[in-house]
Each structure stands twice: as C-alpha cells, then as structure tokens.
Specification:
The chain has 220 residues and is an alpha/beta fold. Helices cover 49% and strands 15% of the residues. It has nine helices and eight strands. The strands form two sheets. It has a five-stranded parallel sheet, sandwiched between helices. A three-stranded antiparallel sheet has the order 6-5-7. Strand 5 and strand 6 form a beta hairpin.
Length: 220
C-alpha cells in the first residue's frame, strides 16, 4: 500500500507511522529522517537543504520533493510506503501525484488522524523533558512524575521546551490549518481520505487505523 499520513502536531503521527509501517510491512518515510540522512551523508540535496536551514529559511518544495523521490525509488519501497510529513502543502501533493503517475503508480489512501485542537494543546504543552536525558519524557496529566519537576529515572530537572509552550503550539496549529490541512480537501476530491479519531491508547488508534484502511481497500 502507498499511504500518506496527515494530522495536526501532537496527533501522534510519528508513533502511528512506525506501528502501521510494521503492520503493513512497508517503509516509514519521514521528512525529518530524510533531511537528517541527506545532511549527514552530505548529498547534493542535503547540502542544499542545509544552506537554507543555516540561513534560517524554509527549505524549498523542490528540494523536499527531490529527497522524497530518491527515497521512494529505493528497493524497499517498491511494494509500498507510508509518507509522514510529506506532502506538507497542496503544491507538494500535486508534485507527488505527478511523480507517481510518471511511474504508473498511485496512492491507495490518505489517513487523516483527527484530534480536537484543545487536546493537541493539552498533549504538547503538558510535556516535560528531563534536562539530563531528553529521552525521559513526562506529562503533567498523562504521565506524571512521582515528584513534581523531578525525573523518576535519574533525578534530573524536568522542564518545558520553548517550542512546547501553549503560544508556540497554537502558532504551529495555525500553520497546519493554513498550509497542510488544505491537502485533505485535495485528496478528498480523489476519494482517498480515510479519517479516524486519534484519541485513546496508541494500540487502539493503530487498530482503528488498520481496520479503516482494510475496509477502504476492500471497498475499492
């Protein structure tokens, strides 16, 4: 299957992408991973992306599209892939369609993870990270430390990252609504969108997604 995963920040796209890709035996292609891999390998696209990032500018669509195209042409993606973070806007979605059509391929589904805006704010703004080890993550509501402000694992101080503040989260949501959300309507016009609720336990959301994708595939 060839799937695009969409949803607002805090919807759990990265977590769900990993589980779904494993269940469907297809590679999880994340734009974040693509950027890191190309920059660390110092590919031409990686060097180009880094020059924009170092200057504090957005990486142009054509660079992102080039990286995605390279990755989708690799052998492990022949039987399908799950795209996470790409396409990020309608022009990227159009470029992806053109790319797939040139290879006589098409998308099977666009999985839309739906989460109420206030839940997104609650999820992200409630995160607390350990200063000693950033892999230790807590939450003021969902995963509280035994002692407030102190990491259970190593005793480090827990803090809120600047980009997790409520103000920043709401700005990120504005960008999502303006730039990324329009791709849902774009794909709805093609009959590709499968919407599920991303509320609840991780495994429940994965089961819900798998069931919805299988039902959608059977209906085609």
């Amino acid at each position: 299957m060839r799937i695009v995963l969409v949803g607002p920040p805090g919807a759990g796209k990265g977590t769900q992408a990993a589980f779904l890709a494993k269940n469907l035996s297809i590679p999880h292609i994340s734009t974040g991973d693509l950027f890191r891999a190309n920059i660390s390998r110092q590919t031409e696209l990686g060097k180009l992306a880094k020059s924009y990032m170092d200057a504090g500018n957005l990486v142009p669509d054509e660079v992102t599209i080039g990286m995605a195209k390279d990755r989708m042409e690799q052998q492990d993606a022949e039987g399908g892939f799950l795209l996470d973070g790409f396409p990020r806007n309608v022009s990227q979605a159009e470029a992806l369609d053109e790319m797939l059509q040139s290879e006589s391929m098409k998308l099977d589904a666009v999985l839309d993870l739906e989460v109420p805006e206030e839940e997104v704010v609650k999820r992200i703004a409630g995160r607390r990270i350990c200063r000693k080890d950033s892999s230790h993550v807590f939450h003021v509501t969902y995963s509280r430390p035994k002692q407030e402000g102190v990491c259970d694992a190593c005793g480090g101080e827990l803090y809120q990252r600047d980009d997790d503040s409520e103000e920043t989260v709401r700005k990120r949501l504005e960008v999502y609504h303006t730039q990324t959300e329009p791709i849902i309507d774009y794909y709805k016009a093609q009959g590709l969108v499968v919407t599920i609720s991303a509320l609840g336990k991780v495994e429940d959301v994965t089961a819900r997604a798998m069931e919805a994708l299988q039902r959608d595939e059977a209906a085609k």
